[in-house]
Amino acid sequence: MAKFIYKMQNILDIKNKLETQEKTAFAIEVQKLRTEEERLERIRREIDYYTQVIRKQNDEHINIQEWKRCNEALEYKKDEEKRQIQQVKMAEKNVDIARGRLNKVMIERKTQEILKEKAFEEFLKELNESEKKEVDELVSFTYNDSESR
To answer: What confidence tens digit (pLDDT) does each residue in 71-126 have?
Structure first.
């Protein structure tokens, strides 16, 4: 039996490697997004902490220096939160870009796999036809050989 050789196997291999690379890049971008989201959550917890300290200071007798320090820290953390929200948005954008590249590469790889499947089906069809032709020739030869005796 003949062996199937896909002429563009090297292209399919390259597409598979590119897809693996894009999957890795996508995973890295998702991890960066998670890290940025965790930072934002930590900042928000710190804002809550300073807010609670200020409220507690207002309920008890007020230590002006502590109250002032907490207010300054709270303002700093609110600014930090705004910057971190921008970082999260940028990380989300990077994840979307990486997802788009990954989708594109996956489509290209799937296209190559479909082409390979079609080439294999064509190979099987040609092989089947050549086998039929051989059988027909064998039958014809056997029939003609028996008639000539």
So the answer is: 999 999 999 999 999 999 999 999 999 999 999 999 999 999 999 999 999 999 99
Rounded to two decimals, the pTM is: 0.76
Q: Using CB atoms within 10 Å of the CB of residue 81, give its burial: 0 to 12 exposed, 13 to 18 middle, 19+ buried.
A: middle
Domain boundaries, position 42: 24-106
Residue 126 lies in a domain: no
Q: Structure tokens of 29?
A: 């971008």
Residue 35 lies in a domain: yes
In a domain, 137, yes or no: no
* Residue 109: closest CA among 19, 5, 25: 19
Measured distance CA(42)–CA(108) in Å, rounded: 41
Count of C-beta atoms within a 10 Å radius of residue 44: 14
Number of domains in the chain: 1
